[in-house]
Amino acid sequence: MSEVSDPRTIASLRAYVELVRASHAVQPRLEPRLEFAGLTPIQFAVMEAILHHGPLTHRDLSAKIPTSAGNLTDVIHKLAQRELVKRERAPTDRRIRLVELTETGRTLVTRLFPGHAFDIAEAMKVLTKSELGHLATLLHKLGRAASVPVEPEKAA
What's the topology of domain 10-145? Predict the structure, then answer.
């Protein structure tokens, strides 16, 4: 196995491991409320995105939800089967399909969201308001920079 000796690379690895560990530590706090409602975290994320941004295309949802395109299609299909979302043609371009909440879906996600937000706040209460703001800024910066495609020769 090869060794990594570059200090910046080592610091990046440590930060990444802590980011993943923190995410994995918070997730179990959120799941019981969603499971009780019969939703997976990704299903809830789709509904929450539509609640806060209005009807979205599959492409828009793909940019907001951390899952594969194939899984997102399956998630939307299952939500539509439960009549929590519906897929409609965009009035301005019939080639585009928008995913929107049904009344049942809107009622469910509106009821769940405050508790979900509380669960997140409880998990993060160890951080001050200033630290939370700083963390959000740093993660946003990281997310935007990391979303740039990697050149093939650098991926090897």
Answer: Arc Repressor Mutant, subunit A (1.10.10)
